[in-house]
Amino acid sequence: MKHPPDRIDVAEGLRHILQELSAIERSVEGERAGLPDARTDGEGSWDGPEFTVETVSDNSMHTVVDIRALRDPGQPPPDRASGPGEEEVAALRATVRALLDLADIGSGRVCTTVVLTERGPRVVSCRLGGGATVFAREPGAGAPG
Q: Mean pLDDT score of the chain, rounded to an integer?
């Protein structure tokens, strides 16, 4: 008698995907810079404008419902009129949709935090529905959040 495989904890699966995505980004950046092995070179800083991207998914179709700029502590609130430009919005949408596809999220609400660094978008964290927030890097020294 065959037994169905154990369900993988969605948050743990998402954490694993975020870590793999970061490793791939470092590897590609290292190849571009001519580094022998970028995976050992460290991630560097994630400086840049930070945004939350809220999505609703149904039948694996991900609809971005809101993109909000986050402010740095001690900074005035971001001006709504000077929100992300068209290229930034496209990068945010593409990054979040790719993450949701990789994580095999078929339905529900998701809130993802993304930083637009000089090296490209970086997913900081992701929260599925009302669940726990999963971080790409542990919050602390050198990490966003």
A: 75
